[in-house]
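Lab notes, practical 5.
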Amino acid sequence: MLARKSIIPEEFGLPGLASRMPRKPVFRDRVNKARFIAKNGSCNLAHKNIREQGRFLQDVFTTLVDLKWRFTLVIFTTTFVSSWLFFAMNWWLVAFAHGDLDPGPQNRTHCVTDVKSFTSAFLFSIEVQVTIGFGGRMITEQCAAAITVLIMQNIVGLIINAVMLGCIFMKTAQSHRRAETLIFSRHAVIAVRNNRLCFMIRIGDLRKSMIIGATIRLQVVRKTTTPEGEVIPIHQIDVQTESAVASNSLFLLAPLIICHIIDKNSPLYDLSAMELQCSDLEVIAILEGVVETTGITTQARTSYVSEEIQWGHRFVPIVTEEEGVYSVDYSKFGNTVKVATPRCSARELDEKPSILIQTLQKSELSHQNSLRKRNSMRRNNSMRKGTGSSGGLRRNNSGLLAPKVQFFTEGGQNLNAVT
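Output from the prediction step:
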C-alpha cells in the first residue's frame, strides 16, 4: 500500500524548514587532553620499551643525579658501608695470614696493632677510609700486604667521596631549583596593542639576584596532518616575540609582558575567539638564563592550552612608584581586565580594518554611556539627599518660629510687628 501524499509540499514541511534554518555552531566540551608541559614546567612524557638500558649505566653520574632523593641516599649509604665491609674483610685476612689472630706472646709485632677480630678490623677500615685516626689501631712496617691494602683503600675511598659528594652537590644546586622563583602568569591574554592583535603573557623573577642573559621562547605545539597524509602528533612551531626581534636577551629586573604579534606568519593568524576555544593547541613558554650567583644555566617552562587563553583581556599594571622606589605588587601578577577586542581572527582584521574602528567606537560609546548613567545616578542621589535634608530642616524649623509681637502707641496706632 502506497503512503499517502501530504497536501503540504515537502520543502515547506517542518523537516525542510529546519534543514534550511541557519544553525549556530555547536561546540562540545573538549575531552581532557594530556598536555605536553605541565604548569610547573615538568614534561608530561613517558618513555616505554627502552631496550638499551645499558646506556644509562655508561653515564653513571648523570643517572645518579637524575634519581630521586630517596634512591640517592640509599645508594650513598650502601656504597660507603659496602666499601668499609670489603676492606674490613681484607684487613681481617691480612691479620689472619700473619697470625695476629692467634693467641701468642704479647711482645710479637703485628701487621695492624689491636686488630684481633672482624669487628676491630671493621673499625680500622672506617678509620682508614674516613681518616678519623683514634690512635688505638695503626699499621706497622711488618707486612707489605697491609701497606698495599692501605694504599688501595685510600684510592678507592677518594673516588667514592668525589663521586658521591659531587652527586649530592649537583642535586642540591640543580638549575631547576632556581627556576622555582621564575614565575609565569596563570593565563595568557589576546588583546589589541598598537592596532594589532597580540598574544601576551607575563613573566617575573621573585629573587633580587638577577638572571643574566635571559631569553624567552614561545612554541605552538599541536597535532597536524601533512598533505601527504602523514600525522605529526607533536608539531612544534616557533613563535616570534617582540623581545626576540629587538634584542637577544631580556633585562628581567621587574615583571615583563611578553608580546607576540599575530601576523600572517603566526600560527594563530586564522583563529577567531570561538575557534580558539575549540582548537587543540598548546603554547609553550621557555625562559632561559644564567644564575648570577652560581653561573649555572637555568630554564623555567610552562604552557597554555586554549582554555587558559583569555580573549579580550589585558594585564593590569603592578609596578608603581612609592616615595622614590619602584614597588611591585605580586598579588596582582595574574590579574586581567576586559578591554575592547574584535572577536574575529587576525586575518579578517587585516582584510577589514574597519572592524577594529567600529569595535573601538562601540567601546567608547558604551564607556561614555556608563559614565553618564553613573553621573546621573550620583546627581539623583545627591538631589534626594538634599531634598530630604531641606524638608527636615523646614519641618524642624517650623516649630521654632517665634510668635508675632505687635507694638501700639497710646493712640492705638500699630507701629510695627516683630517676629
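Observations recorded by the TA: Residues 354-398 form the longest helix (45 residues). The mean pLDDT is 79.
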